[in-house]
Amino acid sequence: DMSLFSRDEVVGPLNSPESYSLRFVTDDMLMLRSDLNVALEQRKMLTDSAAEDPTVLIGWQIEIDEGKFAGLFIVTNVKKSLMRRTRFEINRGGSETAWVYLQRGKGKKGIKFRPLRQVVANSYGDI
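The structure corresponding to this sequence follows.
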């Protein structure tokens, strides 16, 4: 339930205007809740939106099927750079975090993922 979380949990710019972060991840955020997952059409809209504005993925539960990052994660941070691709911090709970490149739309490189549900509303943008 997103009403359990205040906007203070999603903080604005950190060290630069191009860095955004979610402060913590709870066990409830990592629970697989198929009844709350967004429809396939909404997933497509979200990944298309994220190609333009990657911060829309902050606070989303995502699923990665392949590789060493297979599993459920929460997108907790985004770092945009003019010289490099956008990196996303994904969190599996506690200190289990990693910085990855997520594939966000056609022509983008990175790890394939499925956005499942938004676990925390963020102040950067919603679809």
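The chain has one helix and seven strands.
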